[in-house]
Design goal:
This protein has helices at 8-50, 56-85, 89-93, 99-129, 137-162, 168-185, 203-206, 212-234, 239-244, 250-260. With 261 residues, it is mainly α. Helix 1 (8-50) runs parallel beside helix 4 (99-129), helix 2 (56-85) packs antiparallel against helix 4 (99-129) and helix 5 runs parallel beside helix 8 (212-234). The chain is globular and about 55 Å long.
């Protein structure tokens, strides 16, 4: 028999309470983020239309490439980072659910939100583009799959890094320059094996050469990042992540600066 407080009904109540809490706490902030994303989408489409050789559907890829990671950063920061910094995690710890269930709930809420915004933006751009060029349903489905895969991979990576607490800034300061350097040293070949592989080539190329391998690679990265994030969130029933979010000591700050430099 299930342990007290771990039966399905109790877990469902805990998940529902968590959902209500997240909606009450973040609805306005998420709405503002969506407005900004739409504004960036309008700017991206306008710039594409200003280019005589540009394809409207390419603006969907450009919008996703640059701004879906930023949207993921914002959403994960609200759902994970601020939760630990403001110690509202104590409310969550009182719910009849494990650290893994809480992490899964936050991950799901965030990825559903980000995916919905990206897919609806892509659909709106595709509708506009269909007025100017032929966009077969099969191509739009493939393009959407590429965009969603790229978005999921970035969201999962941001979710993972968020769980290293006060060390997350150092991780990004090391990871992003390293990624840029390797891309310049190994153009093309490096991109084909990284988490952004699904959108590493323009749609004009992928129409003729279907990027299923790149999509699969991106999917594997996304799953790996997510599983690692769940593992970190579950260590010591969440106690490890809580400890990582305490204010760094002066010597820890100095060590992070030395490592980054």
């Amino acid at each position: 028999p299930p342990r007290p407080g771990r039966d399905p009904v109790t877990l469902l109540r805990g998940a529902w309470a968590l959902l209500l809490k997240e909606l009450q706490q973040h609805t306005i902030a998420f709405a503002v983020a969506i407005v900004f994303y739409v504004a960036f989408g309008v700017i991206t489409v306008s710039l594409t239309l200003a280019d005589e050789n540009g394809s409207v559907i390419d603006s969907a890829a450009n919008l996703t490439w640059w701004f879906s990671p930023l949207l993921s950063f914002f959403v994960v920061r609200r759902l994970v980072s601020l939760e630990y910094r403001h110690r509202t995690w104590e409310f969550l710890a009182a719910l009849p659910s494990s650290a893994l269930v809480r992490a899964w709930s936050k991950f799901t809420i965030g990825i559903v939100l980000v995916t919905s915004v990206v897919v609806l933006s892509t659909a709106a751009i595709a509708l506009l583009g269909s007025q100017q060029e032929l966009l077969p349903a099969g191509f739009l489905l493939l393009a959407t799959t590429q965009i969603v895969g790229y978005t999921w991979a970035w969201y999962a990576l941001v979710f993972l890094v968020a769980h290293v607490g006060r060390f997350r800034a150092g991780v990004w300061l090391l990871l992003l320059p390293l990624l840029t350097s390797l891309t310049e040293m190994l153009p093309g070949a490096f991109d084909d094996w990284m988490w952004h592989a699904a959108l590493s080539r323009p749609f004009d190329e992928t129409r003729a050469d279907l990027p299923w391998t790149a999509i699969a690679i991106t999917g594997l990265w996304a799953v790996g990042f997510a599983m690692a994030g769940f593992a970190l969130a579950s260590v010591g029933r969440g106690a490890r992540v809580t400890a990582w979010f305490r204010r760094p000591l002066p010597q820890e700050r100095a060590a992070m600066v030395v490592v980054v430099l």
